[in-house]
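Researcher: Let's try something more involved. This one mixes different molecule types, so please make sure each is placed in the same coordinate frame as the others.
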Amino acid sequence: VTPFADRLAALVEERRSQICLGLDPFPGALLPEAVKVAEGDDPAERAASAVRVHCRLLIERAGPHCVAVKPQLACFERLGAPGWQALRDTIATAQAAGLLAIADGKRGDVPVTAAAYAQALAGHTPTPWGDVPGLGADAFTANPLLGGDALEPFLDAAATAGAGVFILVRTSNPGAADLQDMPSPKVPLHEELAQLVAGRAGRLAGECGLSGAGAVVGATEPRHLARLRKLMPSSIFLIPGVGAQGGRPEDLGAAFASEPRHPAAAIVAASRSIAASPDPAAAAEELRNAVWRASNA
Amino acid sequence: VTPFADRLAALVEERRSQICLGLDPFPGALLPEAVKVAEGDDPAERAASAVRVHCRLLIERAGPHCVAVKPQLACFERLGAPGWQALRDTIATAQAAGLLAIADGKRGDVPVTAAAYAQALAGHTPTPWGDVPGLGADAFTANPLLGGDALEPFLDAAATAGAGVFILVRTSNPGAADLQDMPSPKVPLHEELAQLVAGRAGRLAGECGLSGAGAVVGATEPRHLARLRKLMPSSIFLIPGVGAQGGRPEDLGAAFASEPRHPAAAIVAASRSIAASPDPAAAAEELRNAVWRASNA
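Model: All components are placed in one shared frame. Result:
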C-alpha cells in the first residue's frame, strides 16, 4: 500500500492546494437544496439524508480546490444509525471525487479498545459471518491522553491500511491552554505530546520524506507552530482553527518549514468559513490561494 | 429530573452492588446462543444482530447483580450503522432491566463539537424534521485533554438530562503513566485532572451528597486511589481494570472514602471477567460481594 504521506504529497502538488474541507453538518444549517430533498420515515432518516446531500454538494462545489475532507464524527453520530450510514457514504463520495478522507473522531482508549476503534475507522472487523469493513478513512485523528501504548494500535492499523493518524498536540480551542500548555515540568505538555508523535514518525514515513504520523496543531496560537515544527520535523500537520475560530492563513508559514521541505507538510481544515459561504467554491479557492502563498511552495 | 448521582445511590443501596457490567462485544467471542440466531443480509447486520442478543443475554444473566452497564462504543461502531442500532437497543434493554447505562466513548473535542457529542450521547438534536433522540445514556465517559471549556457542553447536557459524566483522570492501561503520571510541574497530571473534575462537582451534585461529575480511575494502580479520593471527595468513581487487567476488588477500599461516605461513591466495571466466564451470573455475583465488602458499606 502507498503510505498516506505519499498519497497526500502527490495530491497537494497536483492540485496546488493544502485545504481540507471540514464537514460538520448542523441539521439546522444545511444547504437549502439539501433540505428540500430530504426523505425517510422519521426525523433521523430525513436529517441524515439531507446531511448526505449537503456534504455531497459541498464536495462537488468546494472539493476541486481541496485535497481532503474532514467529516466531524460527532455531527453524524448524533443522527444515530442513519447518520453513521451518511458518514460512510460521505467518505465514499469524497474519495470518488479524488479527495482523501480524514475521519475526525479524536478517539483514544486503552489498547484493546483502541484496536477496535482502528477497525471502525481504517480497518475491518473479522466476524464469523465474514469481514465487516470500517469507514475506509484515509486518515483519522486520535487523542493521546492515554499514552504511548494506546497509540500503538492506531499506528499498526494505519501502517497496514496506508492511512495517516493525526494526534492531538495543541488544539484550537481557548481551553486548550488548561492542560496542553501546562509546564510538565520543563516544557509545556504539548511539547511532550509532540515528542510522543515525533518518536513515532518512522512508523508511517512515506517516500516523500513526510510522515503520516501527524499532529493536530491549531491555527489559533501560531506562536507554537515554529517550535512544534522543530520538534516534529517530518510529521504532517492538520491545522484547524482558521476562519470562524480566528486563525489566519498568513500566520501559518512556520508549519511548512518541514524537513524535508514539502508543500504537503501541513493541511488546513476549514468548515464553517466554506460551508456557510454563499459561494463555497469561491471561499475554498480563496483559502487555497492564501495557504499556498503562506507555504512558499 | 433526578440527578444521576441520586439515581445511582438509590440503586446501589437497593441492590447492594457497585458493579458495572462492561459490554465490549467481540464478534469472534460471542455467546454461542447469540451466534446461532444471527440474522441479516450481510456480515455487518448478522454480527450486529448477534451482538445485540449477546448483550441481552449477559444483561439477563449478570444484570441482576449489577447497577449499570457500560457499552464500549468502539465495539459497536466497528459494525457500522447496524452496530450503532445494536448499541441503542442494548442501552434500552439495560434500562428496561432497571440498570443505568454508561456510554463509554471517551469523547472529547472543541466546545461546538463536544456539544454535538453530548447530543448524541445524552441529549437530542433539533432538526427541521423534528428532534432526533440520542442514545439516551444515563452517563458517559469524557476525555479532558482539550481543557475546561471543552468539558462545559458535556456538563450542561448532563445537567439537563439528569446524566453523569465520568472524566478520565487516571486510566487503567500501562501507558497511562506516560502523560497522566507526569509531573506538571508540582503534581502529576492526573492530580491536575482531578482538580479540574473537583471544581465541577457542584454542577451535577445529587441530594445524596455525591456528584455525577465523576472520574474514571483505574484499579490497576490502587496507590492513587486515596489521594484522588481526597482531591475529589464527592465525585463518583468509575473504576475499570479489575479482573483481566489485574486490578483486585480488595484494593479498592480507598475509593469509597468519599465525603459524605456512601456505597455509591464508586462503581466497578468488569467486562471480560464476567462475559467470558462459563457462568456470567456467578462471576458477577462473586465480584459484587467482593466489592461490597471492600466498600465497608
